[in-house]
Structures are given as C-alpha cells and as structure tokens.
Specification:
single chain; Rossmann fold; six-stranded parallel beta sheet
Length: 395
C-alpha cells in the first residue's frame, strides 16, 4: 500500500472512545471507498474521522477535492497511481474487492468502515473489532434496477460475468464486520436480504439542517424545484414530462452527464429552466420563491428531501427507499410508481394541500448532524467496551 499523506497521529486523549482496554493503546483504522468525489457518504466519513481520529485507508484519494482528512495519516492502494484513478474511479471496481482485502490491518485494534461498495472487505486481525456503517450493499451488484453500470451498456455480457464474480466476493466480505450499522431501514432490509446479516442499529446520515434554516418563504412564483446531480437514476426526466402536462414552472439546479439529454427533452418548454450548479446562497434565494422540491429518485436515504424540509419546503417524492421514511404526509406527497402519471397525480395532491413551514423545519431537525454524532458515538463506544471487556481480544 502507498501512503498518500501522513501526519502525527492524534493524541490518545483526543480519541472519543469508552474506557475499555487501555484507550491510549487502541489503534483505529478508518476505512472508506474511493475518496474522489464529495458526496453524502463522504459527509458521514468526515464526521467519523472527527469523532475517532485514526489512520485512513482508501483505494484512491483526491487531495484537491477531499480535504477533511489532510491532517490525518492516509494510506492509499496501488490503484492511486493508475491512469484516471481519480477521475474515472469506477473503472477500477473489478479489482477493488482484492484491494481492500489486502490492506494491512495487523496493527489496528478497531476498524471503523464506511461502505457503499467495497470498503467492508477489509480483514481485521484476530481479536480486533470491526464496526461497519453501510450506506448500501453495492447497488450496481445487488440492485441493478437502480444502478445498471455493472450489468449493462457496452460489453454487457462481459460486465455481467465480472459482476457475478464481484457478488461472490462481496458476499464473503459481508461476513467481516462484527457490528453492522445501516443508514436507513431500506439499507437494513437489503443487508438482511442479500447478506443474511442482522443489523445492530439504523442511524440516519448527518444532515446540516441548520444550514437551511435562514431560507425564507418569499413567494411560490418559480413553481417547482429539482436539485442534484443530473444522472439517469435521478429521473429528472419524470419532472420535465410531468410539468409538460401540468404547465407548472420547473427550476433544475445541478449538472452531470445526463444534462444534454435532459435539455433536449425540455426543448420548447418555456416553463423549464436550467441553472447549472449554484452556490448555496443562490440556491437558497431560488428555494425561497419555489412551492416544493421534486425528488423522483430511488435513494438509499436521500439527503436532498431533508435539506428541502429544513428550508420549510414540502417535497414530492417517489415513496420508495429513504424518502419513504423521511417525507411524511404532513410534509409532502409520496407517489408509489416511478412514472409520469404518478408524478402528475402527486402534483395535483400537492396543489390542494397547504404545509406549515415551521412544522416542516422541525421535522427535518431530527436528522441533524448532532443526532448522528450522538447515535454513532453510542453504538461504537458500546461495541468497543463490550468487545474488549468481554475478552474478545483473545479470539
């Protein structure tokens, strides 16, 4: 393994662990999938790194984009030196199970993995404790109807062969963790279904709800709002086709590989506006003049609906996955089929309802960063205390 960055290890007194086996002697490994693109899982990992400073292990790290670990010791894999490792990270997915399995873990007493793909594959030394926080079992392997990258497209037959091998390796890797935490009940159900493992706790990801508290409700003149990455599974096409029928104004904020197709789809629709990526303050000004946020994707959790509700906006969401747990009837409208007809009907329901912005903000607050910190710390500290006090170090 290569060391992409190193720093003096945090002092033992700064470690936030329960008084178990001499806390000063505990060595902690912090494991994450590729750290190349900021996103929801990286937000979770940042919180973990702040609560439990240790040595970071990841297959790839883009120093320019992921800065919150720059003062920690970071160990990357040989993939770090390969072509396009930081820009086309997914092309190396076929070898990543082996990469994580081969990380040297002999020095670590505690492993905290944060996994949406292959990070859970690290193998602890005998007697160590492994706590895994799952964002999902790898969606491209187990839920291809959401993410078809592993089984469709060019050379689909070859991709399916590779995917079968990766599923076998992933199933083996799923046995590694001693304690399993899930980011939603949707993810917990997948873990039980695909891995046949019990989940010790569901801990929702941290959302900075306070960040959106200053969004006013100036008007509803700009209609409906979508914001997020413009990629196929986000189903922005449903939003465009729905407002083609209803005539509602639609503001689309974000960029991504699906942008050209979506703009072509919206050609000739004066009620649809593309804004590209916006700074937070500009997005807030837009939100203050919209009626609701649209969320037609199937997500494991889905941070955008919670951020929207934190700003006092109701959400029209596909009622599957994490949104089914966060967008309650008092704070939005769910639709049960991921198609245009269902979204149009949901918009009709939306137009007939009124929502209390302050109650909506209060609902979102239960998903705030402070709650995540408290629940994650309790789960990990309890696991550490139980593991080491029980004499598991001799196992």
């Amino acid at each position: 393994m290569t060391s992409a960055s190193s720093a003096e290890p945090s002092s033992p007194s700064s470690r936030s662990v329960a008084p178990t086996k001499d806390r000063a002697d505990l060595r902690i490994a912090l494991v994450h999938d590729w750290l190349t693109v900021p996103g929801g899982s990286e937000d979770v990992f940042r919180e973990v790194c702040e609560m439990y400073p240790g040595v970071v292990l990841t297959s790839q790290w883009d120093r320019a984009r992921i800065k919150f670990i720059e003062n920690l010791e970071v160990r990357t894999s040989p993939v770090q030196r390969l072509p396009m490792a930081l820009t086309k990270h997914y092309m190396y997915a076929p070898i990543l199970p082996d990469v994580y399995r081969r990380f040297g873990m002999a020095e670590f007493d505690v492993v905290l993995s944060d996994s949406h793909s292959f990070a859970h594959g690290v193998r602890k030394r005998p007697g160590a404790l492994h706590v895994c926080y799952y964002h999902t079992p790898a969606r491209s392997l187990w839920v291809p109807e959401i993410d078809g990258r592993a089984t469709s497209g060019r050379l689909a037959a070859v991709r399916r062969l590779i995917a079968r091998r990766l599923k076998r390796l992933d199933l083996v890797a799923s046995k590694n963790a001693d304690v399993i935490l899930a980011n939603s009940h949707t993810t917990a159900d997948r873990i039980r279904k695909f891995y046949c493992r019990d989940v010790d706790a569901v801990i929702y990801p941290p959302v900075d709800t306070k960040k959106w508290a200053d969004v006013g409700r100036d008007s509803e003149e700009l209609g409906l709002l979508f914001w997020g990455r413009l990629i196929p599974y986000k189903r922005v096409d449903l939003c465009i086709e729905a407002v083609r029928r209803t005539g509602d104004r639609l503001q689309i904020v974000g960029s991504g590989p699906d942008e050209a197709r979506l703009k072509a789809l919206a050609q000739g629709l004066p009620n649809v506006s593309f804004h590209g990526r916006l700074p937070d303050e500009e997005l807030k000004r837009l939100m203050a003049r919209c009626r609701a946020v649209l969320f037609p994707a199937y997500e494991d959790f889905g941070i955008v609906p919670v951020e929207a509700m934190a700003a006092g906006l109701p959400v029209v969401a596909y009622g599957v996955g994490g949104a089914s747990e966060t967008v309650l009837p008092e704070f939005g409208v769910q639709f049960g089929v991921q198609n245009v007809d269902a979204m149009v009907e949901a918009l009709k329901v939306l137009s007939a309802k009124r929502f209390d912005p302050e109650a909506t903000r209060a609902h979102a607050a239960q998903f705030d960063v402070d709650r995540f910190r408290s629940e994650y710390r309790q789960a990990v500290d309890t696991a550490i205390e139980s593991h080491f006090r029980s004499g598991a170090t001799q196992s």
